[in-house]
Amino acid sequence: MKVLFISRHNTCRSILAEAVAKRFLPAHFHIASAGSNPKGELPALMQTYLREMGLDPADYRSKSWEEFSRFHPDIVISVGDSQHGESCPDWLADGIRVNWDLPNPLISSPNPDEQEKACEQTALLLKHHVDTLSTLPIDTLSAEEIKTRLSQIAL
């Protein structure tokens, strides 16, 4: 099962989603993240937060979804924030597409301590979503049922 997390810049939420999913989903899941307009590097806060999660920030980078033209994900999860008027990129290739609205910790506050707390809250929310994804009987569900269930996770 291939899962691609997408966002506009691939610097925070999609990177967090990739990190959490790689850590907590079973080994038969292949996880990646990408952006429609990647920044090319991770902000210092994200590097610090990944280290605090026990991960090597060098294993993560902001990258274009064009790199995944041959990945052919089964599931594409955008992690934008429509509540704050942020548009989510629209993956136009294969895969069941859903959106998990997540606030952007990097713009939550100018205070680095509050941004770090926001990263932790977003990571905990992603952990809940990923745990729920891991329990879905994906092999027995139709594409529409998978889409519905994955969309309901974020409600």
Question: How many strand segments?
Answer: 4
Low-confidence runs: none
Cα separation of the termini: 23 Å
The percent of residues in helical segments reads 25-40%
* Strand-residue proportion: 5-15%
The SS-based structural class is: alpha/beta
- How many helices? The count is 4
Strand count, sense and barrel status of the largest sheet are:
4 strands, parallel
| Secondary-structure element string | EHEHEEHH
Mean pLDDT reading: 88
Brief summary:
The protein is α/β, with parallel strands linked by helices.
Give a quick set of tags describing it.
single chain; 155 residues; alpha/beta; 4 helices
Q: What features would you describe in this structure?
A:
The chain is α/β, with parallel strands linked by helices and 155 residues long. It is built from four helices and four strands, in the order βαβαββαα. It has helices at 13-24, 44-52, 112-135, 143-153, and strands at 2-7, 30-35, 75-78, 96-99. A four-stranded parallel β-sheet has the order 2-1-3-4, with helices on one face. Helix 1 (13-24) links the parallel strand 1 (2-7) and strand 2. Helix 1 packs across helix 3. The longest helix has 24 residues, at 112-135.
